[in-house]
Amino acid sequence: MTTVQQSPPTPAATGIRPKVVARTGLYALLAANVAAVTYFAADAGFGSNALIVLARFAGLYGALFMAFQLLLVARLPWLDRRIGMDRLTNWHRWTGFGLLWTLVGHVVFIAFGYADLAGTMDPVNQLVNLAETAEGVLRAVVALVLILVIGGASARWARRRLAYETWHFIHLYTYVAVVLAFTHQVAIGTTFTASGAATAYWYGVWGVALGSVVLGRFVLPLWRNWRHQLRVSEVVPESDNVVSVHITGRDLDKMPAQAGQFFLWRFLTRDRWWQANPFSLSAAPDGLRLRLTAKAAGDGSAGLRHIKPGTRVFAEGPYGAFTALHRTRTDALLIAGGVGVTPIRALMEDLTGHAIVVYRVRDERDAVLYDELRDLAHAKGAELHLVTGPPVPDRLAPRELAALVPDIAERDVFLCGPPPMMNAVLGTLRELDVPKPQIHFERFSLAG
User: For residues 416 and 440, what is the distance between their CA atoms, to the nearest angstrom?
Assistant: First the structure.
């Protein structure tokens, strides 16, 4: 353990937390659009068949959910820095289930409603007849089938069995479903054509949603990479299975990256250009270079040590809300597990106030970047604890962690490590009554 003189404290963050502002803004945006959709649907008239009225509302809310889903995964910097890609992705997933059920309800109510109007008991035949005779209905059926396939691929049991590349390829069909659903709405949507205001509203909804995706996922990455011209400057082995990659470029002092964030990195070699891997910055950006540090856990990360200096790099980002922006207290506790130390090491440079760093590894040989942490702790007046040993017994159980950090409930806690370790530590923090707003973590496995 390294313990040195405490540095002068800095004031704690004040005001409304950025995460609360962004989350409240998203809820308010969704609620306002639900109200607008309801108003325009009512203004268009309800009709005499209750099932068809229900179908109309289900379809409209489904279209709104689809647009909202696009906004959640557009990777807009303002939202991402305040909420985090992992949480936005999780909200996207749950919104997707809402979309799935509203669209299924739309089709079921339409089929039974038109069967009721025709005086038959054959809703399937009515749906087939609509697909053959009504403009845009066949496109809507194809869109629903695509949504069902995508929803099935996103179910937890399927997601665990699919390679990321396969899952991502299936999800690309979401954009096909969006186009088909929109053309269906334009062709026969009663609410869409009921008034000029309704038509303008829906064009605005889809324009903002698709425009956000184009801006966040295409325009910004292309602009930043053209501006900064990133290249590998050095590849440094940190241990037998851990390597650091140093990257330089133009005007890096103007890149809006913060300690704790990550990029999706593409190294433009013949055999790697198509792979995008999420790696955190392992040093705070200094305006001259960026550094990532990765453990060999697959073909993508294992191949990093063979990259040649001068290799061009295409980086998407920076992403993530695991930054000092979310500080609520003067002092901090940083808990790292294994190679999860990389964003913690970067954050340590950026944080002010007194910091305690707890680094959990199985063996001292696994303590990547430990020498750097020790030097930083000495320079910043921080405490550094290296906790070693097998996962059981838990070295970071409530009693053990409280002994290391007696004032833990008065500190911000930044946590990064393997999922089992993070889950265990989050349970420990709950038992120690650490307020939830003071706990900061990001599940980087969702970054892709």
Answer: 9
Domain count, the chain: 3
Considering the domain architecture, whether residues 297 and 331 belong to the same structural domain is answered as no
Task: Quick: pLDDT tens for 225-273.
Answer: 999 999 999 999 988 888 999 999 999 999 999 999 999 999 998 888 8
With respect to residue 23, please indicate whether it lies within any of the assigned structural domains: no
pTM of the model: 0.85
Domain boundary among 208, 224, 240: 224
**Euclidean distance between CA atoms 138 and 113, whole angstroms:** 18
Q: Which two tokens stand for residue 195?
A: 């008034």
> For residue 20, is it within any domain?
no
The last residue of one of the domains, among 319, 351, 381, is 319
First to last CA, the chain: 36
Strands 439-441 and 289-295: unpaired
